[in-house]
Amino acid sequence: MPAPQSDRKPRRPRLSAEDRRASILDAATEVFSEVGYQRGKMSEVARRVGVSEPVVFQNFGSKAAVFAAVLDHAAERMSAGLRAWADRCPDIGTWLGELLAPEHLTRIHARGSLGVLFEDAMTLSGEPAILESARRANQALARTIADLLEHGRTDGSVRADLDPTAGAWWLISLLASQNFRRTVSPDPAHTDTALAALTMRLLAVDPPN
């Protein structure tokens, strides 16, 4: 005789406070990168995590605090991703060429990507905590890129006279302004290609023939 089946649903494993906070950050990253800060709802973040909305606020305090934490988290992920990407390339000059490829510029500004979080953050002038986090996140990315450019000076693929910090902020500024070029340039694809070529001449050493 088969054993009677219980009508009870299996209990979801209880997350530690650290794991719950991490799961909220992951869900919030998805929501904000898909629809932006203004349209992103904490109820949707809670739904994706499988908790109630008050739990989200208990962990972070406010929607702005959630977004600020998302930016810090995104900067860590992007820095790790940039380093891993550079490690897969034969030298930093090659990595620079891939970083500046028009198709990559398009990807980092597509909805659902981490890049749109930084673009969105700079429009939120009424949220000091978010602007401070955006500054902190961009500074972290600049340090990562400066380190990679310094490696490029060592491997000979980046100009020896380059200031790595200035080069890093040049790259960040170029990457961040793609939507501006897309809006006002008569031929955005040509402009991006020309700017990439100009940047490579400024930063990288020409490969030997």
What does it look like?
- It is a single chain.
- With 209 residues, this protein is mainly alpha-helical.
- It has a domain at 63-203: Tetracycline Repressor, domain 2, CATH 1.10.357.10.
- The protein has eleven helices and no strands.
- The termini are far apart.
- 27% of the residues are buried.
- Residues 1-6 have low confidence and may be disordered.
- Residues 41-60 bind DNA.
- This is AcrR family transcriptional regulator.
- Pfam families: TetR_N.
- Keywords: DNA-binding, Transcription, Transcription regulation.
Largest β sheet strand count, sense and barrel closure? none
The total of helices stands at: 11
The H/E string reads HHHHHHHHHHH
DSSP strand tally: 0
C-alpha Rg (nearest Å)? 21 Å
The coarse silhouette is elongated
CATH C-level of the domain at 63-203: Mainly Alpha
- Report, as a whole number of angstroms, the end-to-end distance: 81 Å
At CATH level 2, the architecture of the domain at 63-203 is Orthogonal Bundle
Structural class: mainly alpha
> What percent strand?
under 5%
Round the mean pLDDT to the nearest integer and report it.
90
Pfam families: TetR_N (PF00440)
InterPro entries: Homeodomain-like_sf, HTH-type_TetR-like_transc_reg, HTH_TetR, Tet_transcr_reg_TetR-rel_C_sf
Protein name: AcrR family transcriptional regulator
DNA-binding region: 41-60
Please outline the helices and strands.
Layout: H1 17-35, H2 42-49, H3 53-60, H4 63-88, H5 92-99, H6 102-108, H7 115-121, H8 128-155, H9 164-176, H10 178-184, H11 188-203
